[in-house]
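User: My instructor asked us to take a sequence, write out its structure as tokens, and then describe one feature of it. I'm not sure where to start. Here is the sequence I was given:
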Amino acid sequence: MSVLELDRVCKRYRDGQLEQVVLRDVSLQLEAGELAIVWGLRGCGRSTLLRLAAGIEAPDDGAVRFEGRDLADHGEEILGAGVGYCQKLPKAGSQPALEVVMVPLLASGLAPAKARSLAGEALERAGAADCATLRTSALSTTETVRVALARVLAHRPRLVVLDDPIEGVELLERDAILSLLRSLAADGAAVLASTADATGLSGADRALTLGDGELRGTPPAGLAPVLELRRPGGRQASG
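Assistant: Let's start with the prediction itself. The structure tokens for your sequence are:
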């Protein structure tokens, strides 16, 4: 059974009399230990796709399942437990990073000592242990990404969903973030991320592209030739 399954998912938004189809018959299966990264131009629907995958939004048609359970019926109980959705931290936050990671754990009913222990372990796993006492307003962009990821990892999710984790990250530091995602998959998690930069596809088991509402990507080995990454309109993506 796949950790994540999107089955012919469609998503539309209405603005008055206008209707925009953001996702059209999108299907995807993601297994434990697999890293899939979705590339697409800004505004193509990448964030919508990831919110659907995490159970934050529901599709208009089709189904999204986590370990066989439909997120439309079980999303609230699964999000934050089996599924971890990594959101960017407020840049002007005044809490120390350790507290930022602890708060959701405390809200789930854990004792302070246990929450502190798990938060410390998560910061260590995300490569942000040195940030524990720093306020989020003092963190670099890369450190902010790591702390945000630690907040998710503290719950030990089996599916990790990240919306453009290298956005704003210095070019020389991107490989470290991508290597971290690769290591999460190596530890057994299913990881789904997005990027607007083709360099963000490094290390992925599957490089997917989203354009005109359609998801394309590298199929399982031996089933079909790998599709080239192309911008909408047929131009090959530059690297």
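For the description part of your assignment, you could build on this observation: The chain has a mean pLDDT of 86. Try explaining in your own words what that tells you about the chain.
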